[in-house]
């Protein structure tokens, strides 16, 4: 209700609002445990009555209820608010008589002494009225404290002279050059006159918050209207080349913000040059204040970077001079110029370090933002067949493609099944020639042949490249995979239901930027290999087999399983043979396999044949863990890819895929490929 809008609404519906507030007050007055509600209701009634002039509408029964609650309640805040409301009624000509009638009425049944006590309590100083009066007195005192001593009353000039003489003898008399003193505070005017009268060699600058009645200060006193603390450095009389020999602050508390001014004045006060100096310039600030306020003033100066200097020889004399007028004094010093220089140098270095950290943080944040954008872009576009570079599919464009190291078996025009074999990084493709040997019978050209002509093409990276991509099998396995099993809830039934549709109830994590950059290399290899396949597949070729060792097997796996190839080419992929390959970021490839699996399941009428995955791995491979092999196999089967795992034993000193195992395993796989329908 304490808003202009609320009152505007209330004025349009005065009677309705007033009756509602009366009813609200009547209800809360009946509760014994709702003092806050009573306070609020009484305040709202007072606001309405005051602003809408409807106090005379308050019925006698409500006034009696308010009186009863006032006499009954022991809650201080409630009594104060009710007393305020009753005083408001007492001030109204109409309700005043109703209030007296209620106090004297039979309902309260009070004798004369009780009636008088109730009226005293309503206007008691401990209620809001008393508080308001006390606050008014406090404001008057504070206003008086903001006036200079000369404007309050005639100052004790003798006492000011004594203090000035003691200050002069202690700190200014012995100086060879002309002294310069800045005087501030409530007693600044009296002390400035006394100091200026002692000697012509002392220049007194009087800094005051008002220029009223300052025309009689004399020629030795420069009068200055103090600017705001933050503007001290721009005031010519303060920020001049002549430093102040002493800052004299006389009764500052309640008169000015001594801490703020003292801090801003530090560069303009003379201090000792060396930290080891123990005689000259030991005191930079002298504070005179009432005894009960001296500690507060001293704390303000401490916070401004001043130190206690009450150990100097002149302190007892100054203390006695101030005590004669009921005041106390304290002396303070600033760090030496040497220490201040070291501090400023340390601060500059700290600021430089902070600035450098901020720049580094900004650069790091910008880099993280750029990397996140790049990560999102790569994740959305890698191995997307719709974004496949058309240049890789245009035979008229001279785009880099994989090279052919050698060919085995049937010719390009006669081959029905073509095997593309990719060696590992930094390998010579010739080492695989003996193990990829295809007999005339296996090639479909000899007696007893199956009739399916087989051709093997050994593919190598484009000219000038020795590696397919940089990630090793060991690094790929060490990075691992990331996916999450999903279910409708943690119950056994929900988990069992999710397992029934395992291909759908799994989610794969987003690869890191470093992993996506590795996939970017693999995608390029897949595109280059795909260009080679387009060139090497003959008119009779109906099936394509992709295979390889180590990194070569990983490239073959991504091309065969990611769906990057066209639908026509994807249908030709009959089998995938991966040998000892640590397929990088397999959870990314698994997400592509999941998409293909669910699409095939949703198209019930479409017949989609996924390539058979042949996995050949040695037991206790030093780079590819057995658990990694098992996980790849499980994920392939999960997404309906036929999978055959073949394992071989190897001696500790043998290479990862020994020659004896190569010929046996590859011959067996090639026979399976030839025999497959």
From TrEMBL:
Residues 538-638 form the Serine hydrolase domain. It comes from the Eukaryota. Residues 348-375 form a coiled coil. Signal peptide: none annotated. Pfam families: FSH1. Gene3D superfamilies: alpha/beta hydrolase (3.40.50.1820). Keywords: Coiled coil. This is Serine hydrolase domain-containing protein.
């Amino acid at each position: 209700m304490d808003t202009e809008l609320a009152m505007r609404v209330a004025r349009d519906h005065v009677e309705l609002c007033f009756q509602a507030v009366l009813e609200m007050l009547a209800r809360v007055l009946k509760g014994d445990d709702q003092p806050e509600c009573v306070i609020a209701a009484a305040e709202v009634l007072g606001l309405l009555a005051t602003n809408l002039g409807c106090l005379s509408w308050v019925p006698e029964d409500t006034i009696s209820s308010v009186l009863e609650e006032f006499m009954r309640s022991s809650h201080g805040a409630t009594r104060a608010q009710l007393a305020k409301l009753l005083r408001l009624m007492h001030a109204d000509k109409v309700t005043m008589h109703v209030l007296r009638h209620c106090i004297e009425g039979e309902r309260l049944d009070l004798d004369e002494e009780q009636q008088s006590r109730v009226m005293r309590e309503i206007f008691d100083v401990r209620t809001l009225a008393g508080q308001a009066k006390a606050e008014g007195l406090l404001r008057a005192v504070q206003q008086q404290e903001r006036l200079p001593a000369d404007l309050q009353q005639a100052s004790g000039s003798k006492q000011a002279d004594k203090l000035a003489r003691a200050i002069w003898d202690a700190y200014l008399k012995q100086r060879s050059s002309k002294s310069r003193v800045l005087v501030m505070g409530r007693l600044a005017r009296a002390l400035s006159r006394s100091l200026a009268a002692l000697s012509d060699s002392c220049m007194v600058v009087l800094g005051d918050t008002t220029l009223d009645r300052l025309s009689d200060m004399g020629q030795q006193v420069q009068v200055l209207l103090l600017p705001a603390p933050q503007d001290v450095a721009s005031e010519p009389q303060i920020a001049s080349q002549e430093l102040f020999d002493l800052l004299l602050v006389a009764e500052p508390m309640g008169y000015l913000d001594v801490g703020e001014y003292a801090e801003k004045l530090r560069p303009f006060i003379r201090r000792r040059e060396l930290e080891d100096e123990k005689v000259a310039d030991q005191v930079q600030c002298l504070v005179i204040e009432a005894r009960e306020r001296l500690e507060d003033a001293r704390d303000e100066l401490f916070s401004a970077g001043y130190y206690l200097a009450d150990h100097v020889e002149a302190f007892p004399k100054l203390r006695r001079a101030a005590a004669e007028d009921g005041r106390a004094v304290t002396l303070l010093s600033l760090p030496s110029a040497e220490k201040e220089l070291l501090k400023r140098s340390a601060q500059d270095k700290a600021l430089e370090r902070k600035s450098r950290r901020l720049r580094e943080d900004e650069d790091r944040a910008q880099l993280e933002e750029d990397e996140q954008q790049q990560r999102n872009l790569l994740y959305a576009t890698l191995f997307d067949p719709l974004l496949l570079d058309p240049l890789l599919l245009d035979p008229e464009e001279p785009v880099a493609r994989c090279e052919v190291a050698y060919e085995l078996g049937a010719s390009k025009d006669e081959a029905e099944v073509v095997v593309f074999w990719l060696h590992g990084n930094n390998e010579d493709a010739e080492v695989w020639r003996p193990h990829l040997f295809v007999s005339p019978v296996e090639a479909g050209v000899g007696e007893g042949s199956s009739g399916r002509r087989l051709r093997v093409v050994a593919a190598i990276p484009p000219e000038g490249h020795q590696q397919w991509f940089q990630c090793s099998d060991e690094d790929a396995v060490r990075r691992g995979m990331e996916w999450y099993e999903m279910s409708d809830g943690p119950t056994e039934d929900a988990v069992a239901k999710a397992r029934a549709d395992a291909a759908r109830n799994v989610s794969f994590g987003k690869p890191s930027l470093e992993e996506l950059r590795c996939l970017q290399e693999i995608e390029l290899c897949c595109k280059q290999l795909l260009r080679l396949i387009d060139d090497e597949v003959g008119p009779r070729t109906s099936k394509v087999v992709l295979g390889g060792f180590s990194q070569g097997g990983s490239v073959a796996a991504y091309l065969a399983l990611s769906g990057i190839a066209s639908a026509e080419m994807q249908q030709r992929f009959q089998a995938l043979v991966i040998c000892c390959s640590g397929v990088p970021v397999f959870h990314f490839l698994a997400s592509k396999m999941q998409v293909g699996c669910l699409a095939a399941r949703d198209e019930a009428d479409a017949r989609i044949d996924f390539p058979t995955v042949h996995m050949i791995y040695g037991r206790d491979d030093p780079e590819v863990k057995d658990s990694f092999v098992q996980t790849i196999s499980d994920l392939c089967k999960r997404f309906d890819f036929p999978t055959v795992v073949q394992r071989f034993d190897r001696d500790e000193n043998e290479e990862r895929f020994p020659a004896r195992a190569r010929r046996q395993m590859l011959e067996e796989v090639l026979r399976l490929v030839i025999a497959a329908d």
